[in-house]
Every structure is written in C-alpha cells, then in structure tokens.
C-alpha cells in the first residue's frame, strides 16, 4: 500500500512537473517579498511586531499556552487555508486565488524568518532551525502539492469542456482530487503535532537567552 502511494505521487509529480516548477517559483517569490518587506517596514511597526513576538515567547515560556491550544490553532489555520484551496480548484475561476495562497504562504515564512533573524541574530537563526523549519518541512510541500492538484484538476475540467469530451468521468477525477487533499490534510496533522508538542520545547530553551 505505501509503495503504491509513493508510485502514485511520483507519477503525479512527473505528469505535473511544469506546474510544480511554477508553483515553487511563486512560493519563492512570496518568501523573497516577505524577507524584503522586513527591510522596508518602518521602525515603529517593527518594534510592535517584535514586542508581539516577545509576548508570545513569554506566554509560551510561562506555560500560558498548552500544546493542545497550539495544535487546535495550527491545524485550524492550515485546514481552513487548504480547504479554500480545494474549493478554488472546483470553481475553476478560483485558480488565481490558488497562486495567491501559495505566494501568501511564502510571504509569511519569509517575513517571519527575516524578522527574527534581523532582531535576534544568532538566536534568530536557532529559532528558524528549531521553531520554524521542523513543521514547514512538511507544510510547504503539502501546500505546493495542494496548489498543483487544484490547478491540474481545473485544467482537466476546462480541457474536457473545451474539447466537449463525451462520457467524461467527472466523478473519478473528483475522487482522485479529493483523495489527494485528504492525504494533504493528514500531513498537516503531523505538522501541527510537531509545531504544538515538539517545537515549544526548543523555543523555551532558546528564548531564555533572548529575554
């Protein structure tokens, strides 16, 4: 079973390699713009953001947030964004929003990493390695796969309509489309678990040297 799943995704990536390249490029644009934005944000806004970060670190260090609280928030945010992605693939005209979501995801990561490294220097790098990278090594591929799947599904439907394909098996394509998304939702459960129950331990250790 796992082998067949791996083979399926290998074929999926091979068949949609061009789309994967475009989506990855869009994600990197988002990361670059996010990192650049840190440089142009005025000092007062930057101070407010850093104060918010420090407040979050303090709350986490004082056990004001439980792992379950973080898990619910993390999973809910990612689930809603990916569910929107899924829906955008269904309505066809929502494809531009799929690109916007992946760029937004890149922007958030780029801005966050840029801000903590600029503000906390070496400790910022440690925060990136131990607090941002672990869950995003799963989340980023999940978002990229979701985006490609939505666009690919929309193109299949559009192509079938343009070519007026008779006996087009919409149900089959919809089932494959939704099954891939269910797999993606399963991966964000893992990412949310890491973010909620593993990452906070490292954050608590690092922020003791920052506060």
TrEMBL record:
It comes from Alkaliphilus peptidifermentans DSM 18978. Keywords: Membrane, Transmembrane, Transmembrane helix. The chain crosses the membrane at residues 17-38, 86-108, 120-137, 143-162, 174-203. InterPro entries: SpoIIM, SpoIIM-like. NCBIfam families: spo_II_M. This is Stage II sporulation protein M. It comes from the Bacteria. It holds the Pfam family SpoIIM. The keyword Membrane applies.
């Amino acid at each position: 079973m796992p082998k067949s799943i791996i083979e399926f995704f290998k074929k999926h990536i091979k068949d949609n390699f061009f789309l994967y390249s475009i989506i990855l490029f869009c994600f990197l644009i988002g990361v670059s713009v996010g990192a650049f934005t840190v440089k142009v944000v005025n000092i007062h806004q930057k101070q407010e953001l850093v104060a918010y970060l420090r407040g979050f670190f303090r709350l986490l260090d004082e056990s004001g947030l439980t792992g379950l609280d973080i898990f619910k928030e993390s999973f809910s945010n990612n689930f809603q964004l990916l569910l929107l992605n899924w829906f955008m693939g269904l309505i066809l005209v929502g494809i531009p929003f799929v690109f916007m979501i992946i760029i937004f995801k890149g922007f958030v990561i780029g801005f966050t990493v840029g801000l903590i490294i600029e503000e906390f220097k070496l400790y910022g790098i440690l925060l990136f390695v131990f607090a941002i990278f672990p869950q995003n090594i799963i989340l980023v591929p999940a978002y990229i796969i979701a985006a490609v799947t939505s666009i690919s599904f929309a193109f299949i439907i559009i192509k079938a309509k343009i070519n007026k394909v008779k006996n087009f098996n919409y149900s089959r394509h919809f089932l494959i489309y939704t099954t891939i998304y269910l797999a993606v939702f399963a991966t964000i459960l893992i990412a949310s678990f890491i973010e909620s129950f593993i990452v906070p331990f490292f954050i608590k250790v690092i922020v003791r040297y920052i506060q």
